[in-house]
Amino acid sequence: MLSVVIPTLNSQNTLPHLLEQLSGKVDDIVISDGGSTDDTLSIAIKSGARLAMGCKGRGWQLARGAKWASLNADDEHWLLFLHADCVLSENWLTSIDAHIKKYPERAGYFKLKLSDTGWRPRLMERIVGLRCRFWQLPYGDQGLLISRSHYQDIGGFPNWDLFEDVKIIEALRGHLRPLKADIYTDAGKYKQDGYWRRSVKNFKLYRAYKAGASQENLVKSYYP
After folding, report:
1. How would you write 124-179 as a 3-class SS string?
2. Which pLDDT tens digit goes with each residue over 117-175?
3. Is the pLDDT of residue 75 over 90?
4. Distance between CA 103 and CA 68 in Å, rounded?
5. Comparing C-alpha atoms, which of 168, 20, 130 is closest to residue 86?
6. What are 10-44's pLDDT values in tens digits?
7. Which terminus of the chain faces fewer neighbouring Cβ atoms within 10 Å, N or C?
8. How far is Cα 28 from Cα 47, in angstroms, rounded to an integer?
9. Distance CA 155, CA 142 (A)
10. What contacts 97, CB < 8 A, 6 or more positions away?
11. What is the chain's Cα-based Rg?
């Protein structure tokens, strides 16, 4: 059994395409919404997805969605966490099936692609690939495939607003492998802020997180 958990907040422009990709190919879709005021909820309902409503904050939403997805699940239940603005390559399902059969004890993540042209996004993709290879540190926009039992053993996503993806990946070190499929994510924030400027900002925030900064201070720095 494969359940997909998608955190949303006013995601009407990107969610329909992802739901179309998933429709009929997974056993369960849980939309964990943080208070959308657009058509996100009606889009989710029309698609047949289940809704997990509550406070916003990606960590909170992912944890809540996983809890809903795990209700009445069997022993071979797997969870796939995706962001609402992602697009999966055509071979996403076959790569997941292969991973589950060959590496049931490991979690998986997709290879990142940015929806932009030019050398800057290609360089960023290369840097992310090196980060994943040598540091084993994929971020949340690369998706996460994990068995429900493994997810529960490591404590799941923390109820955080930021770095919830880093926290769970740190708990999975040594039990991660890349899936043989790509995930395309919106490059809008990189184009708006500038690739270099945004990368430096993210790295500074990561250092602050590793130094023990509180969630409150991290959120203030991320959303000035």
Report:
1. HHHHHHHHHHHHCCCCHHHCEEEEHHHHHHCCCCCCCCCCHHHHHHHHCCCCEEEE
2. 999 999 999 999 999 999 999 999 999 999 999 999 999 999 999 999 999 999 999 99
3. no
4. 25
5. 20
6. 999 999 999 999 999 999 999 999 999 999 999 99
7. C
8. 11
9. 20
10. none
11. 17
d(CA 105, CA 9): 32
* Amino acid present at 190: Y
CB 32 within 8 A of CB 62: yes
Phi, psi torsion values for 223, nearest 5 degrees: -115, 75
Q: Which two tokens stand for residue 191?
A: 């184009």
Which residue is it, tokens 């060959």? 102
Q: What is the DSSP letter of 11?
A: -
Cβ contacts of residue 180 below 8 Å, gap of 6+? Answer: 91, 95, 98
Cβ partners under 8 Å of residue 64, min gap 6: 32, 52, 54
Q: Return the H-helix or E-strand segment holding 216.
A: helix 215-222
Q: Which two tokens stand for residue 215?
A: 């969630």
Structure tokens at 193: 């802020």
Q: Is residue 15 within a helix (H) or strand (E), and if so which, with residue range?
A: helix 15-22
Q: Nearest to residue 166, comparing CAs of 121, 127, 202?
A: 202
Give all domains of the chain, ordered by start, each with its CATH number: 2-187 (3.90.550.10)
Residue 122 token pair? 């290609």
Give the pLDDT band of residue 189 (cuts 50, 70, 90).
confident
Task: From 115, 142, 118, 120, select the one nearest 131 (Cα to Cα).
Answer: 142
